[in-house]
Amino acid sequence: MKITDFRSLLDNGSFEDPITPAALNGHELSELISPISCEEFVSTYFSKVSLNVEGTSKKFNHIFSWERLKQALKRGESITDKHYNITASFTGGEDSGDPRVMIDAYHSQVIELLNAGATVCISNIQIADPFLAKWALAIRAQLNFSGTVGINCYISADGSGLPMHYDSRVATSIQIAGKKRWRYATKPAKAWPSSNEVYNEGLNESEVGSLPDDMEFREVELNPGDMLCLPAGVWHSARGIGCSLALNLSFSPLNYLDQLMPFLKKYATSNPDWRGGPPVIAEKIQGNIPQEISTYMNERLDEFHKIVQKAFSNTDELIEPWLTSLTRAPYTDCTTQLRSIPDITPSQQFKVTDPPLRYIEFQNRLIISFDNDLHRFPVNLAPMLQRLSSAPVSFTIPEILSLQHESNSLTQNEIIHYMQVLYKFGIINKV
After folding, report:
1. Backbone CA torsion sign across 320, 325, 330, 335
2. Max Cα separation, the chain?
3. 221, 224, 231, 350: most buried by Cβ count inside 10 Å?
4. 15 vs 297, which has greater pLDDT?
5. Do 307 and 411 have their domain in common?
6. Distances in Å between the alpha carbon of 358 and those of 53, 136, 329?
7. Between 400 and 406, whose confidence is greater?
8. 311-347 residue pLDDT tens
């Protein structure tokens, strides 16, 4: 067993000036999964089949490092959000284990736990690292993923890791430093399970899906620059070699029914038969459901069936719930405040803050999904939005004015007004 003094890596006494990470460029997903194309990743691998991608040793240097971890831990000491937390485990990547493997820990214990041979997990570390928060949101946007994206940081001593288990979310391990040996199934034991499971002898196959003994497994040693993307429900175990620093970029789905509930509730609250609830009855309840109640239930189910049919026969009814689901997710401290309009020169360059810029025409308006909200603009603003979402990335106000002038759709004052609105909400920014 190799002994690592984690104090030399994480001692806050050697805390340096904050590192300024590189700016987002709109290609975060393609850079992460390269040389796999985004199209192949979505159609063949994501949430379907396990994917191991080898990379160069410096591939993820711009994403995270030991120094950035020290900075995050320092910031984390003042974070009160319970989604950000630290846990530890003294397991070693066994083929089975106890589901209660993780113990709560404090910032002051991290180095001590690691030197004692533990694996330490910092959940939702992006709350303590602004760049990681924006980077995760960029990946989410480029996948048009409607659920929650988070990042856990795992630091493992030599031989330390987590036993055989699966997660209820897509888990993407990004090896930053050191090495980690993984054993993983090629496909999910159960598609999109509702909870995490740790494998042990007493598990029931009818509840957790296929058991490890019945599945094909692979082993891989992740080196810096390597990535392993596992669909939800894939059995896996891992242990550090020497010492390991890795990020786990996770994709937790949202049940689509949750996104439709406001629409269905709006219908129900507009109908007095739903608002009033089941009828009152004075007879005794002995054995059978009263006929009045049975009739009421059947009528409501019939109405519900018809409204669902109508919704699915007209996709326009589902556009807003879907667009809303694409707005920024929780667990990322990136709320944008309304900004004042700056003085600018004709040569001032602008760019989209978090590419790609997504907009959809709906009910004679263009809707932009951004920062926990939907922003509505006139449809004749489409040429401008199309230019903002294409290459080259940067643009000037005169360039946009010229573009819109060619379409003869808006006045110069109207164009400047909408550019100001985009800036005020943080959708575009100065270069």
Report:
1. negative
2. 82
3. 231
4. 297
5. no
6. 29, 17, 16
7. 400
8. 667 667 677 778 777 775 556 544 556 778 888 888 8
